[in-house]
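Support reply, case 0932

Customer input (verbatim):
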Amino acid sequence: MRFKRRTVMQIADMICGNFPQESTFFLYRSSSFLTEFYSDVDTDYTHDGSTRQIWVADRLEEILQEPHAGTGKVPPTFARVIQRLMDPADAINEDQQRPGAFAMLNAALAREGFEAYYAPDKQCYLRHIATNTTTAPEHNPHRPFSTTELERRDQLRAYLEKASEDELIEEILLPLFRQLGFHRVTAAGHKDKALEYGKDVWMKFTLPTQHVLYFGLQAKKGKLDASGTSRAGNANVAEIYNQVLMMLSHEIFDPEFGKRVLVDHAFIVAGGEITKQARNWLGNALDASQRRSIIFMDRNDILDLFVVTNLPLPPAALPPQTWPDEPPF
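Our regenerated output:
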């Protein structure tokens, strides 16, 4: 990814704090504090005594060349740089919401199609304006969760227990995959009636090489098992076997390229558990080429990804608000 040199130099000025101290919104950082700043974002850059603005800008351009998830994303290290720059504790000449700092930063980022904002966790994130995709510094679903994140995870689990299949798709899966960098995420049966054929959702993902992969998604609200008779609320894997075959063999029309394409991979998503027996049964029922195209996601995968991407919970998943009693008249 490349930003215009003008944009990089403006952000470098903010990191350095190259503004009159009586009217600035950014801390002044000398040589040693610039080294400390880059250490805080997990890099090993050490200031060499050269002109601060140019040195910082050169390091930013190196960071922007790091691998990243694709269209609408910046490298995770750059996201950490912005998050460190906008630390509420570093507010100067304004309150901790930092409106003046955001105005300057977003004026520069808008040139590249991005904007910065504070999320409910009081951390700064970058959003790609055109795709509404957010880049967070870390999207590792296997990291330890904070107490607040565990609370949100429990609230979402309770919501999934009672959510319908349509709610699972509309309220959880569509926002989640958009946030993960997939684009043209389309629910079948809505605007594109012809895009069903075993797919509840279709979407695509652009690799850093600019090659495009297409995905279909089949969602079930409950547990996915391989028992002879499924209990109420569960789905038998045999029920989705034909849907998977249809998904992999039927072409979809991509209006952006004006051509029909086959789905490269199929997501099988369950709002409950996907048992090992169900995975094995479907793997044995499909041939080798089709088997490699299947990706499973169960409830734990959904919960972990939803929490680490910092998506807002659906309104129905939030605890009811309690209002204080009205004072007596």
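We compared this against your earlier run and they match. Two observations from our side: The CA atoms of residues 269 and 287 lie 20 Å apart. Residues 5-135 form one domain. Please reopen the case if you see a mismatch on your end.
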